[in-house]
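Morning F.,

Quick status update on the modeling queue. The single chain you submitted on Monday has been processed. Sequence for confirmation:
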Amino acid sequence: MCDCLLFREMYGDPRNQIYKFEADESSIHIGDMNLLQTNDSVLSFSQHLDLYWRGETLPEYIEGYTPFFEVLAPLPIKIEKVEY
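Structure tokens below.
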């Protein structure tokens, strides 16, 4: 079973449709949005911003931290419905 079907099974509804997209992979950014939610100092927030734009996240040794990734892709993007 592909990852998209497993994800839908865990978090969605079997009626949810699945789409794929094609874009220039060299210009896609994947960042941890949880890094942008902080009540820490300006210095700490600056470090979090740096990690975000480098596509990195907090070290794995921070207990209980779970990244929440977003994907930013510039237009044009080709989107197709996937039939399963």
